[in-house]
Write a structure and sequence with these properties.
It is a single chain. The chain is an all-alpha fold. The chain contains 16 helices and no strands. It has helices spanning about 5-20, 25-35, 40-50, 55-70, 70-90, 95-125, 130-155, 160-180, 205-235, 240-270, 275-295, 295-305, 310-315, 320, 325-355, 360-385. Helix 7 (about 130-155) runs antiparallel to helix 8 (about 160-180) and helix 9 (about 205-235) runs antiparallel to helix 16. The two termini are about 40 Å apart. Mean pLDDT is about 85; it is low at about 190-200.
Length: about 400
């Protein structure tokens, strides 16, 4: 195994540990409701607290990465995840658990930005879309693993023991990153020499590139999260049981774990990113809409999990290909700030659409529109990129 692929393996496990801890509240929700007499609204808030810090911390996180380097900031982020997970594990109240989730979420923000920069450093100019696709697949892999492992472990032992496991995963990732990760050699063609941190002195072109790419990334992920959140409700309205609806939606998630890195591989092999993005956005939008109108909605749900894989690897490679190394961490901070804002707003908007219309299909149609609008957002990025 070449060194850069070994580094990607370390990065993959680090991102997996983040998804594993993020989903732990959802996996352990029944035990928290019983043990602390929480409402499901409070449980939902605890879930969201892991992502909410990103709306204000992503841009400063990018500046920190530019100033102190990817490795140091990633280690700090994993440290926050360990501390946050320990606070949740020992938590004796809703407030204590909320504090732990917020700390873990701040760590997750820093990690998200730095891992993308690490992949860009090692793979810039060669197989970057495949590498980005593999990195991105680690997040849903960690989420799915959390759902499979933590609930049964909590039932066999306690929910606190299950939460300790997320702390152990973050601690192992911290050890792997600290001991096993190294920056690319100075002469490696995948990396450009880094200039001193520019602080807020980011060129206007970098801002416009980061904003347009961030809007596109936010729209794509908003569509995905709305489908994941509201597809079970729709399927139950069509006669599926709770278990069947959850299984089918989870299966689509597992399919995307495979399709996302494969989509990056296809992009690197064919070198037709514009055509692939157009097909991916429009075909995925059609399949999401078809869930609500066509026969066999579960089949269309699975198809959306396949087709959406055409997009993430290309879209995560947009900024590393267009922005110089000395501005990349800051640009990724802007990019991820919009991502977190989209994640925070999308489910609320989809729920509002559901309440206003009274139709369980409307959130999915809303997701289809978001997916379709992703295409002009990416096209805007490419137009700005051409204006040198």
């Amino acid at each position: 195994m070449s060194r850069r692929w070994a580094m990607l393996l370390v990065i993959f496990f680090t991102r997996l540990s983040m998804g594993f801890q993020f989903q732990s509240i959802a996996a352990l929700a029944p035990f928290l409701v019983t043990g602390f007499d929480l409402s499901y609204a409070q449980v939902g808030l605890l879930m969201g607290l892991f992502l909410l810090p990103g709306t204000v911390m992503a841009f400063p996180g990018g500046l920190l990465g530019q100033r102190f380097g990817s490795l140091r900031v990633t280690i700090a982020g994993l440290g926050l995840m360990v501390v946050g997970g320990m606070i949740v594990s020992y938590g004796g109240s809703f407030l204590t658990i909320a504090v732990g989730r917020t700390l873990g979420g701040i760590g997750g923000v820093l990690i998200n930005i730095m891992l993308a920069r690490m992949v860009a450093d090692w793979f810039r100019g060669r197989e970057i879309q495949t590498a980005m696709g593999l990195m991105l697949a680690a997040w849903p892999f960690g989420i799915a693993l959390s759902l499979v492992v933590l609930g049964p472990l909590a039932a066999a032992a306690t929910w606190r023991v299950a939460e300790y496991l997320t702390v152990a995963a973050a601690g192992l990732a911290l050890a792997l990153i600290a001991l096993g990760y190294r920056d690319p050699p100075a002469g490696d063609a995948a990396a450009e020499p880094a200039a001193p941190g520019p602080g807020l002195g980011v060129p206007a072109r970098v801002w416009t590139l980061a904003l347009s790419a961030g809007v596109a990334w936010a729209l794509l992920n908003a569509a995905i999260i709305v489908v994941a959140s509201f597809a079970p409700i729709f399927l139950m309205s069509r006669g599926a049981s709770v278990g069947e609806a959850g299984f089918l939606t989870g299966l689509a998630l597992w399919i995307s774990i495979v399709s996302v890195p494969l989509g990056g591989l296809v992009a690197d092999r064919t070198n037709r990113p514009r055509l692939q993005v157009a097909i991916g956005c429009l075909a995925t939008a059609v399949t999401i809409a078809a869930i609500t109108r066509a026969p066999l909605p579960a089949l269309w749900l699975m198809a959306s999990g396949v087709l959406v894989g055409l997009l993430p690897g290309i879209m995560m490679a947009l900024l590393p290909r267009a922005v110089r190394t000395e501005h990349l961490a800051t640009a990724l901070g802007i990019f991820y700030g919009l991502f977190y804002l989209g994640m925070a707003l999308s489910q609320t908007a989809a729920g509002f659409v559901r309440d206003v219309t009274g139709d369980p299909a409307m959130p999915l149609l809303f997701a289809a529109v978001l997916m379709a609008v992703t295409l002009p957002a990416v096209a805007l990025f490419w137009r700005i990129e051409r204006q040198v």
